[in-house]
Design brief:
Helix content is 57%, strand content 14%. By secondary structure, it is of the alpha/beta class. It has one domain: P-loop containing nucleotide triphosphate hydrolases (Rossmann fold, 3-Layer(aba) Sandwich), CATH 3.40.50.300. The longest helix has 25 residues.
């Protein structure tokens, strides 16, 4: 099974992806984590992440292809972020989960997370980029009939319960 989990930064994608990966025995591929590791060695990537911008498609697609290569069961966490990436991704996706969280809750969560790139300015920029770039991706998958929206505002436990119910159906 190939699943994509989408949502704005701080929506709980990583937490729910780990839960799903364990539940369904899927490989969890967390794109942002890979880029944060790369940023420690690569100034170009570091500068992009520190501005709250998106890494260029060519680089993202190359990494995703490498990470998903010959893998039949995975959950992609945080990819695709742009419509061009969704269209370029050639694997047949079975399900796309969208964790919908309101902006105020996202800001609170991210400010508590204490990650280097989670400045208030950066959070606002990432949310703006998310609205501009990622919303069209949701519509793309919705037209394919594989998008399911989940309310990501409640507690982790409640969201996990809803995710589990969706996966059962």
């Amino acid at each position: 099974m190939k699943i994509i989990i989408l949502g704005p930064t701080g929506s709980g994608k990583g937490t729910q992806a780990k839960f799903i990966a364990k539940l369904l025995k899927l490989k969890h591929i967390e794109i942002g984590d890979h880029f944060r590791k790369l940023a420690k060695k690569n100034k170009f990537i570091k500068d992009i992440l520190n501005k709250g911008d998106l890494v260029p498609d060519k680089i993202v697609l190359k990494l995703v292809k490498k990470l998903t290569n010959n893998n039949k069961n995975f959950i992609l966490d945080g990819f695709p972020r742009k419509l061009s990436q969704a269209r370029a991704f050639k694997d047949k996706v079975d399900l796309v989960l969208f964790l919908n969280v309101n902006k105020n809750d996202l800001i609170k969560r991210l400010m508590l997370r204490e990650r280097e790139d989670d400045t208030l300015e950066n959070i606002h920029e990432r949310y703006k980029v998310y609205l501009e770039q990622t919303i069209p991706v949701l519509n793309y998958y919705k037209k394919q009939g594989i998008l399911i929206t989940i309310n990501g505002n409640p507690s982790i436990k409640k969201v996990s319960k809803e995710v589990k119910e969706v996966l059962r159906s």
